[in-house]
Amino acid sequence: MHNQTTTEPNAEANNQAKIRSVILSALTDICGTAEVADNLQLDLFAHGLLDSFGLVELMLTIHEQLGLEIAPTEVERETWSTPEKIIGYLEGKAR
Amino acid sequence: MLLQQIEHWAEETPQHPAHRHREQSLTYAELNAYSDALAVWLRERVARDYHSDHNKHKRLPVVIYGHKESEMPVLFLASVKAGHPYIPIDTSVPPERLRKILETSQAAAVLSPQVLPAAVKRSGFLWQEQIHLGDLHSLAPLGTHRKPEWQIGPDDVWYIIFTSGSTGEPKGVQITRRALESFVTWVNRQYCPRRGEEVFLNQAPFSFDLSVMDLYMSLSNGGTLWSVDREQIANARELFRSLAEAHLSYWVSTPSFAEMCLLDPGFASALLPDLRYFLFCGEVLPNDVASRLLARFPQARVINLYGPTEGTVAVSGVDISAEMAENSEPLPVGEHSPGCRIYICNSDELDTNNQSHLETDNCNRLEAGNLSCLETNNGGRLETDSGSRLETNNEQRLETVSLLKPLPAGEKGEIVIVGPNVSIGYLNHPELTRQAFFAWREEGGTQRAYRTGDIGCQRDGRLFYLGRRDFQIKLHGYRIELGEIEEQLRKLPGVENAIVLPLERRGKTAALQAFVKLCADITVLSAAKPRETTEPRQTTEPRETTEPHGQNYSFDLGQHLRKQLSRVLPAYMLPQRYIFIRNIPLTANGKVDRRALLGGHYDPV
């Protein structure tokens, strides 16, 4: 029991770290700039770094590397407009 | 004739919706009555405005500026009925590009359901009217309209679509009534819409010639055109809601759009139970997209079509079977062809021929002994006597190539299209027209020919597309001349030189990247480029200052260039990635070494 209470937060922290790492790496590749990892509040759509097709690529990467299936109808563009929002959404989904 | 077919549906099913966009709907009766009334008004207005020189101006094009408003087909048909070719311009086009198109086309007017950008309004070289359905109704209360005498002959231009141009400016492809009707007749015969029953998806903007297929297939068969706009496309939930409501039977889009929809498990036959056809054109159809569509929509056929804008949307198509889609070979792009012929030719021979007729032109075009020519004009006259010329109503002359021999089946070469679907050339660009169009002598006469720049081959009676021989690319279905973007980049202050290349991800072109060499005097840019981000920043690590040559500096500079470019280029032509380099790498021959850039062999700033 004692072990379980200590491993669960660790597992969640590991999971969160993995999500963060995968998303920032994928966004750096798709958006073509490391600025996305540097500024987590950067509006990806407003800066022309992400469009509908880039979003599709990101969803495919999420499925391949995190095993999370995201349907386009599941997300509003506004809720995925910054790296921070994307990471937050996925952390919530993975819980 | 297309106009008569549409009129037939206005009489047969007057209350049937011809066009639907969100809550707006336009019936066939409204489409016909409003376009007739607007044509009468347009003709009178042009006659009044160009009173002293009416004949000269009566066939000037009319720009139709809008997006997916239900009025759009009314404005198209009114222009045609009044005898003016129309130029569809999407509202996503930046004002500067719109102004350039207006200048190049010498348009007589702009009709729009929307307010025109201020920059265009101020130009003052043409008149503009904002026309809503309400205006149209007051212009022509149903049942009281005047029917104009249609003024479009078979060889008159029906529409002009502007595409990206390698010289840095967009160019207008002119499509005649004959070419359009030949195309529509073929697709109707081939893909058999049931009369008065079908619903066609309109995904592409009207400024993209793919939309010509859904618009005129639908209107010629008494169907309903179901438009989805860019806001709906950007919001998958809203898009799927619209698709579920539509009861589509014909899906007309780029493969990229269908691929995006396929990511959602809800994109299946339960969403579109009435769907019978997927008609794809504009870019390569990946095998896995075809395969997944066939699995999810077992009741539908997947058709892969091929053709450049200069060939009137498409000149060939092929029904893709599950077996073909599962094969590792690229999918064929055609086996049927309308009145058109598709030849595979040696590009060097085409170049040589092009060069020789240009030289001939410099000496004396009319005395080119071994060249015979074709003449088309408003009356469709054909003259094939040796040594004469081909002249269109835009006064563009084409020379016959009598010596060219197509390559045998299986050999790779440049795709040449010959036949009635071929455009009469680029509007007000005779030199560009001569470089790409020529007359082709064959048994029974001479036909217009267009060298596509596409590389392909024919095997087992099927056409395969293998790429391009120049710097034109397709990105999500949009045709882009990389040279046009490079030209616009070089015009920006602080930019000495720039090369734009496609960025490949997952085996396909996903975006554009610009390699930029800055001027030695970088202060030019520093002065022009204040930091624009005003939001507070939360960073994972302490942020560096935006020092010249730093990573953040590059990002800001890229954003600055992107913003400058967005004033003259549409969003789909804006590079996503900007890489600043010290020198443009060159090959041993002194040409730009694009392979080196793509391979990461450059000296970054």
Automatic annotation (TrEMBL), chain A:
EC code: 6.1.1.13
Catalytic class of the enzyme: ligase
InterPro entries cross-referenced by the UniProt entry: ACP-like_sf, DltC, PP-bd_ACP
GO molecular function, one term: D-alanyl carrier activity
SUPFAM superfamilies registered for this protein in UniProt: ACP-like
Keywords of the record: Cell wall biogenesis/degradation, Cytoplasm, Ligase, Phosphopantetheine, Phosphoprotein
PROSITE patterns: CARRIER
Pfam families, A to Z: PP-binding
Domain (Carrier): residue spans on this chain: 17-94
Transmembrane segments: none
Gene3D superfamilies per record: ACP-like (1.10.1200.10)
Biological process per Gene Ontology, one example term: cell wall organization
Protein name: D-Alanine-poly(Phosphoribitol) ligase
Species name: Acididesulfobacillus acetoxydans
Automatic annotation (TrEMBL), chain B:
AMP-dependent synthetase/ligase domain location: 7-350
Superkingdom as given in the UniProt entry: Bacteria
Gene Ontology MF term list: ATP binding; ligase activity; phosphopantetheine binding
Region (Disordered): 529-554
Enzyme class at the top of the EC tree: ligase
GO biological process, one term: amino acid activation for nonribosomal peptide biosynthetic process
GO CC terms, sorted: cytoplasm
Pfam families: AMP-binding
EC nos: 6.1.1.13
Biased composition (Basic and acidic residues): 529-547
Keywords: ATP-binding, Ligase, Nucleotide-binding
UniProt-listed InterPro entries: AMP-bd_C_sf (IPR045851), AMP-binding_CS (IPR020845), AMP-dep_synth/lig_dom (IPR000873), ANL_N_sf (IPR042099), DltA-like (IPR044507)
Entries under PANTHER family matching the protein: FATTY ACID SYNTHASE, NONRIBOSOMAL PEPTIDE SYNTHETASE
NCBIfam families referenced in this protein's UniProt entry, alphabetically: PRK04813.1 (NF003417)
Entry protein name: AMP-dependent synthetase/ligase
Organism: Acididesulfobacillus acetoxydans
